[in-house]
């Protein structure tokens, strides 16, 4: 397996040159476009890796999967569904159009920014610090990594450039979808996007999802099976922005990408996958990472369809 | 003339019962639905009136005409046009859709909220207080009324319920249309909407516009003819929200309405008109006021077409 | 006056080189981009002209003004309004979006294709030929020109390339806005777009509109004053496609353009104007014609605002 | 298994009373709202059934799965993808909006009407009859049922009421997405929608899909594995109209519904499922059928996620 992974890394890392680094935040521009790494964690907890498997980056939108799961854990699925739908949308990740034109003012799904801001707002806690701790603690357990934390530089940048997200949030507040102090909700959202990890951390988290919520290396139940299943389903229908359909056809793995270059994959009952490749395609997904996963899916017959 | 106005008031005030008071702000709900008043000021400064001609209310969106004129005065028409277009739109006054879907991110025109927030932001001044003073001073001169000021209760309410406008503003900031501190810009915008006046004040302002910027009772030039012409044009194409086309067909007078129940009218080279009738139709225009203006336009052949 | 017109033609015909000829129909590509002509007809019937004042071209969308007037004449304004609204729209002339997204399925106004197809369908007559004769006869009287007829080559091309209009028509049929045989309605619509005339013909038609429906050279009433007023109003708010707002601000004349390069102008109580300049700007309006009208409006103070 | 199916039918058939029969075609209104039937075919070809398992109905939109597969077979996936995308959309099945507003004019996916009209147009054949024969022959083989054919009454009705589809087709022709004679393409589309079958037929077709294109009862390869996989993927992301996301979360089976009341299900590597229940929910899916599948998925742990 390690040999296969190494071959695939060598074959695909050249794609990074065709992509672009995310540029809305200075810190993201420091990445190396040819970096490419992958880690696989199977359901026994065994790990396989190649390339930049331990390079640290911010998980960005991948955090939406975590806030979704915590929101369901804290409120139940029905309550969450009242505030955010689970339908895919043809619009981009930061679109505001459908908040206005649709009869129900709910965001389309928890994988677009508007929907993720809602799930973040639904995490329960007395203070923002307490809510953030929940997110971080979840990540620490799911990754078996005590060092999980926030990249302060990225967080500050997110906060400074977050006007589009402010627009989404105030719009939803005016429609009664969002309650409470908007700047506090957004602050938590910007922090969760700034959580740092590596492809290894993502692969471990993916393995927990693939294993129906049970941590492979400890046997501990981290999250309910039903919540895992919902998360994996929404990852397939909505996880790769408006390229989700194409990704499902070509690769067929529940996955979520982030503009930091990470991709979280969870093959039900088989394995977790973590990928890092910071150069993005025009949809905002890791360009080399997607090529790498396409080969991997073909080699190991990973498609769930 | 006074007799005609009195007859038209008596005939049309019953329409108020078919309308609704604006309800997003508690203060607006205190109005009396059957109130109806009209004032006409001709180009000699002579005044005719009937009904609730001196009742005080907040001018709300009518202030958009003033901030448009001051923005052009301070920046020139071309500069303003770079930030806000002058095309009518089929969307509602607080729509955000077109900010996203159109190639140019400019708001459609200065009579919808997004566009008016832009013109307000373009008024020059060292402090917010200085900018507000410009607006108030303009109104004082145009109305020959030293008592023009802000309704503090309404202003505070606007500020509290202004999340939709915050969404519009942050969205435009994220697109580079709006610059500076958003809460400060919105604060000025909320204040200008809370300026108080009567149908008489509006009629006098209308007379200045009808008279190409020259104050009829003093001969003083308050604003350039060209700017007046632009304002009157945009009032026709965009002044009555998404009922502007119907209003132009039926009545044919440059006009601007506000949810406080006021309508400002300016018949080029003939007269200014001020109307007050707080009950609104579903488009947000004074329901009795529009009926009243329809009769008046027919009686006096006021349509410019 | 003729001297002024000649000067303005000379000054502005160079703009034709910056525009593009309409290309969707081969016949339209045969035009000469530097051609520019203007005719003015005053309310005594006196004519002034310069440039290509008698060159023949197809009137295209200018025919929408005629089918609107005939539809109102045959059905009354209220009946027409039930099928087509009179609101300006920010969308382009052949947009289908708003037919779907708005609560009422009526086209926005009679100057966009969807709306004009509706008004054409509302002209009464036993056969298509009879309806066409009504259109042609109206034009003959309004232009004092017995030679008005159809350009068969253009008509055949319109029919061949009319799939977007077919889409609009079938969509409206599925919504109950349009009734009857779609291909027959469209055939009439394509024929009316292929009516030929010159800048002189347009100027005479404009003079009738400016004169409230009375033919200046004969004193005959061709169309009711009220219908003329409606037509002129809608020309201002919607006549120049999605550049109507800018045109109103800069020029301020009720006008309607066609992709054949014609512009029909009607200055209430003053004059009719006909312009021909086949090179178009990106909105589909005669590029040199608009510059010419801008100068003319400034010189003669023609703006109605 | 038969016992389980019988219990689930009894439990869920009451939901039919909460739904509505499709009403745009008279023939569809003759159905019985409480009818509910299910058939399961496993990968050995063994069949289990309960309720109205052999009642005949028109498959309607389920035929979109077949025309998609034949289009790919005849043209290759890349060629099809150039004409129709594979992304889910938040818009309804007969929406025209995105054909206009998106940069690429391709329909969003082959499960909405616009996209299915495209795939139907891509089936190769010298005549319409030859193309129809391909569709019917495919169905005959996939269902082991020589009686598969067209319901002429439904076909005629589809043709008569198909103006919305005509609008979509002409729109796509004007954009170069669709080529050839529109009425002929639509005629074939209306015929394919009028193909008749039973829940048993759908279950057998589903079993072929679940078995990667190999007919379980004969071992014959009917369609390439890769094409089956694409079909199942698109069924998950787009198969249940704009309720696809919710269906995936709650049930997690590749499925496609039709307004005739049928649902085709294909659980990869496990079984085909056919459901019949003509009463529809507001999204156009069989209301009792969905409840039935929810129970079945829970009982047999069928979700692929």
From TrEMBL, chains A, B, C, D:
<dbReference type="GO" id="GO:0006543">
    <property type="term" value="P:L-glutamine catabolic process"/>
</dbReference>
<feature type="binding site">
    <location>
        <position position="165"/>
    </location>
    <ligand>
        <name>substrate</name>
    </ligand>
</feature>
<feature type="binding site">
    <location>
        <position position="61"/>
    </location>
    <ligand>
        <name>substrate</name>
    </ligand>
</feature>
<feature type="binding site">
    <location>
        <position position="113"/>
    </location>
    <ligand>
        <name>substrate</name>
    </ligand>
</feature>
<dbReference type="GO" id="GO:0004359">
    <property type="term" value="F:glutaminase activity"/>
</dbReference>
<keyword id="KW-0378">Hydrolase</keyword>
<dbReference type="Pfam" id="PF04960">
    <property type="entry name" value="Glutaminase"/>
</dbReference>
<feature type="binding site">
    <location>
        <position position="241"/>
    </location>
    <ligand>
        <name>substrate</name>
    </ligand>
</feature>
<feature type="binding site">
    <location>
        <position position="189"/>
    </location>
    <ligand>
        <name>substrate</name>
    </ligand>
</feature>
<dbReference type="GO" id="GO:0006537">
    <property type="term" value="P:glutamate biosynthetic process"/>
</dbReference>
<feature type="binding site">
    <location>
        <position position="158"/>
    </location>
    <ligand>
        <name>substrate</name>
    </ligand>
</feature>
<dbReference type="InterPro" id="IPR012338">
    <property type="entry name" value="Beta-lactam/transpept-like"/>
</dbReference>
<keyword id="KW-0007">Acetylation</keyword>
<comment type="subunit">
    <text>Homotetramer.</text>
</comment>
<comment type="similarity">
    <text>Belongs to the glutaminase family.</text>
</comment>
<dbReference type="InterPro" id="IPR015868">
    <property type="entry name" value="Glutaminase"/>
</dbReference>
<protein>
    <recommendedName>
        <fullName>Glutaminase</fullName>
        <ecNumber>3.5.1.2</ecNumber>
    </recommendedName>
</protein>
<feature type="binding site">
    <location>
        <position position="259"/>
    </location>
    <ligand>
        <name>substrate</name>
    </ligand>
</feature>
